[in-house]
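Input for the complex:
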Amino acid sequence: MLRQRTSWITIIILIAALLIFAAATSRNLGTFGITVLSGLFQAMLLFLVASGLSIIFGLMDVLNFAQGGFFMIGAYVAYDVHHPGGLIDMTGAIPNADLRFFLSILAAIVIGALLGAFLERGLLRPLYARPIFQLVLTFGVSLVLVEAVRFIWSTTPYSWTALFSVREGYFTLFEQQFSTYRLFVIGIGFFLIVAIALLLQRTRIGIIIRAGVEDSGMVEALGINVRAVFTLVFTFGCAVAAFGGAIAAPFLGASIGMSSSFLLSAIAVVVLGGLGSYVGTAAGSILVGLAIAVMANYSAEFLNLPVLASMTPMLLLVLVLLLRPSGLFGERR
Amino acid sequence: MNPTDPILTVQAIHTFIGQFHILEGVSFTVPRGSISVLLGRNGAGKTTTLKSIMGMTPPREGTILFDGQNLIGKRPYHIAQLGIGYVPEHRAIFKELTVRENLEIAERKRGDLARRGDLIFDLFPDLKRLYTLLGGNLSGGQQQMLAIARALVPDNRLLLIDEPSEGLAPVIIEQLMSAIERLSAQTTILLVEQNFRMASKLAQLYTIIDDGRSAISGSMSDLVRDEALIQRYLGVA
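Predicted:
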């Protein structure tokens, strides 16, 4: 319990330091608000990739390098379903853009789940005795996903053009316009953080997953089909990542670069949060997301060094590991 | 099946761990309602024998019959579901789960824990007091009781208990012994135990495993009188 408390204090101090730094380097309250909002937006998307990465790694000892690829696929599927042309053109069948957006998210989740289930059952399962092979396999799959996108949707990044009501909305605060869509994504993100936490704490499958993170062999010896749980968790993790890509797409568009950039930041989140810790992953996502936005704002205002923002997750990872070698909420090994 | 048939028959099993040929022919039977014990020196293959029965280190050769069903080739969860409870060496309590969750996870049907609660808390009254604590915060003895209790949640007909006395104080060992003894009225028990005094008091039957082979089986009352045999295989007197 004491360790938990120092973990919380550390993360609160880090976030407070970031916010103070952001306030000091912002021109006015408006830009400060923008920075915080876009930081939380980034944080929620990161969480949707990192949560799957963390739970899958904790339970199955598989570092799923394809997790970023699922995020990217989600973005492309959502884009494709929502816009005219492409693989599936729904604009004629469903003229209502809001309904079509809902459908595009659903499509991304289903595709992510199907691909995830296939990856676990078909490709990973024969390799549980060979962890290194699994690592190479998921890395290979992430490349295959990128090439598949290149093949299906070409290499040019798409930017989201077909608007719908949540995406169009704005509200004004401190004489600055804010997008309601960012708020919408942040709301969904916080909802999922709490929902997954409740799922892990309160349900039988949650107990099984937490026990499996500690000792999956013993869980199986109690009469639970652990491999079926593996498939379920892996599928869920991939579906959540694809969902993240789908809700990111209206703001970030769809591009091949999403795959590796979100994967790398998510790995940073999982490691600095503490391997296998759900709380650490959630807190780490918020920390890294805010840090990226604060650094992007700082470099835009003072340094003109755009690369600083993309370096931030790794810099933060180094900093946190120097302070706490097992991550913020990690068990000392 | 005939009630006089043994509940478990292990016949000439060979188990490998990686390249290593750990069990080179282990055979014994466990009669219904008995406490049987596997004896032998460290590294003789007792734990591997239990893991082979559970399918955790599946044997390459031989047969294992549980109530007439062959367990060879079945996955551990399936074997457990047939009615075998496993209490491993070092207890394998889930440290991040509460005592309550450690018991709940062992349910095979809804309400197992409620049904068996009386039996469990009657045997181990301490667990009730510790219900909301994390498994990792329990003492070694409390963890051992929880590990046995966990195997009692479903209606298991056979319990495999590996080294229950390991690392525990004599007072705690006494408590455990009396619990296991009372338990044997309900279910059949196969024990692995280094503590010969404990094993000889509890078990009616023994099998000595020596260097990966079952060397000799018999009744415990004969073994305690045969000092030469004890000296030869167990190195204790």
